[in-house]
Amino acid sequence: MKKSPLTIKGIYCACLILFAPTLRAESLKEMIPWAKKYDARYLAARADYEATGFRVAQARSRLLPSLEANADFAKNKLRITYDDPNFTDLDRRFKTRDWSAQLVQPLFRLEEWAGLTRSEKAKKQSYYSLRQAEFELVMRLAQGYYDVLLAKENLNVLESEKRALTERWQAAMGLHKSGAVSGTEPLQIQARLSLVIAAVLEAQWELANKRRILESMAGPNVMDPEPVDESEIEKEWGDLEDWLHRVSENPRVRASAFSLEAAKQDELRAHSGFWPGVDAVGVYQKAWLGPSAALPIETRNRNASAGVRLTWS
Question: Which of 145, 152, 167, 290 has the fewest CB atoms within 10 Å, i.e. the most exposed one?
Fold first, then answer.
């Protein structure tokens, strides 16, 4: 049974409709998650915040116990000869090995404690800097969003004016051919139409430019923006008076406050060199030693110690 061309064409069109992307307008709230994954400024602030988390872990590691282990293995050859026949020459091959472990627990390290506190303050500072970058991203995105809407509306107005002048020019040309009007009126309308056409071209370029700016923040696959209900935004984000009472919680203000506290910890670290350091130290060592001139037999040594170590520059 041969399928008709109409059936094949219908299946092809249905597949195109099914798998083609949905062409719809996108709201400002839907663009924000896309912008957080694409905008370079916001991604830089987020990367800096993630990096400060690793700095805190590094600073905390200096206050945790540290275990150091060493091991040695060697092959040796010992040969001792005597001029006196009463002594027997010694010629022996042997192996020596030893290993040791040292456990250190810092008890009092002012510089390390100040460094940990400083890294924690820096992490909070980076967190509020990230929030500030997020707010600035929303503001820039909203500005680009409304710029595209305004440019699009301006283009629609100019295109409507262009269509109206085109119809007027065609009507004036018809009246001129019939002798109802003079030849100057079509020329005047044509001159105005030329100015409007130039304005339409400029508006198209302006719309394309504003759309590129929006794409630089939200990505190249961003859809056309749709008008935003301002009452919903005010209901969700609060009005201006509510924000004025939150000046002390502004991310930029909080970031500056934590920057000051971090600087104080840097000052404390600078003076920490005058303070002693106290560590708890435990050592265990075991060695297998070969013969020597003084003791021509293999020996085994074990050594263990525990105590407190004080260092003061």
Answer: 167
CA-nearest of 107, 152, 90, 92 to 308 is 107
CA distances from 234 to 4, 136, 228, 304 (A): 58, 18, 11, 71
Handedness of CA 110, 111, 113, 114 (dihedral sign): positive
Within 8 A by CB and 6+ apart from 287, the residues are 96, 97, 98, 99, 300, 301, 302
For residue 224, which amino acid is it?
Answer: D
Query: Alpha helices, DSSP H only, in 95-109?
Result: none
Enumerate the β-bridge partners of residue 257.
none
Structure-block tokens of residue 245 = 């009472």
Closest CA to 148 of 207, 212, 66: 207
- Summarised one tens digit per residue, pLDDT across range 28-52 is 777 888 888 888 888 888 999 888 8
pLDDT of the residue at 5: 46
Q: Which residue has the tokens 């919680």?
A: 249
What pLDDT band is residue 225 in, cutting at 50, 70 and 90? confident
